[in-house]
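#data-curation
PF: Archiving a pair of folding outputs for the training set. Convention for this channel: one message per protein, sequence first, structure tokens after, nothing in between. First:
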Amino acid sequence: MKNINGGILRKIKSLPTLVFQVNHPTKQLTTNTQHDNKMFCQNISFDDLANDVDHQETTCEYETHHFFQESNTMEENKLLCNFEYKCPPGGKDAIILYTTSLRGIRKTFEDCNMIRFLLESFRVVYYERDVSIHIEYREELWRILGGRIVPPRLFIKGRDIGRANEVAGLHEQGILKKLLHDIPLISSNFPCNGCCGIRFVLCLSCHGCCKIIDQDQGKVTNGYRIRCPKCNENGLIKCPVCS
């Protein structure tokens, strides 16, 4: 028996040293993760990641801006509904201001300048219609409002905003700025080259005298003069550049 046990011991001692290796799960997971990270970094560069982040930020900014723009438009439409709809010709999506350049009544003249100043301070595009220069504007204003209304009178997108006192009150409350939302802005700081901002020029046919020679009658009567059909009562026509 001793001989058998001794033989077994000698057999064991003659074997190479046994090394028991245990693969730890955490160590294996860490090794695989490091390997996967190396592969990920090799496939995607930092420039690609930066571009992707920039794209996401730009998309987010656009969506936020679009959301606030829609909110402002809805608020503007809601405010405009509080005013009576009396749309001047060509004023459905524009600002129309009826004024007078006559200084006979000082308050009327100053009220016109006040509304004009407010609109210019917001740098929005508006169309001024001076009833003292063009009598058709006066008839147009009276027809819209159903009476002999004295300017100034402001219309925004077909809505009757009111007179100078009403416009000034809206401005003090911060409502006027909201009503002007979505109105195109002035693209140039310089007045029109054709009329210098007056919006009318001398008639090119009669040169302001309101009379022209009738060519048919002129052959017989040495130039029979008739009323010029192109200009208004002051010998003016709308500026061909900015009208």
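PF: Second:
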Amino acid sequence: MATDSCRLIFMAAHLCADFTCATRCTKFMAAHLSADFTCAARCTKFMAAHLSADFTCAARCTKFMVTHLSADFTCATTFTKFMVTHLSTDFTCVVQ
């Protein structure tokens, strides 16, 4: 998917020291957020836009990531912080 590719490239540019984490977290989200499909679909949409359209979904999605990536907590928290801080700063890339 173009958006996923663009997002991954954007993450790589901003998380050069943690590219493996970015890649693994992206794969994890794609594979496992479907455990809560409704939230996953909505989260994907608002994260790709501006991370502020649906706080309830955001909270659930973040909690899910932290819970299920607890074996790699640093990756989970780094990725979450990255998304909150940077994902909306390259809007053109994110929404392509």
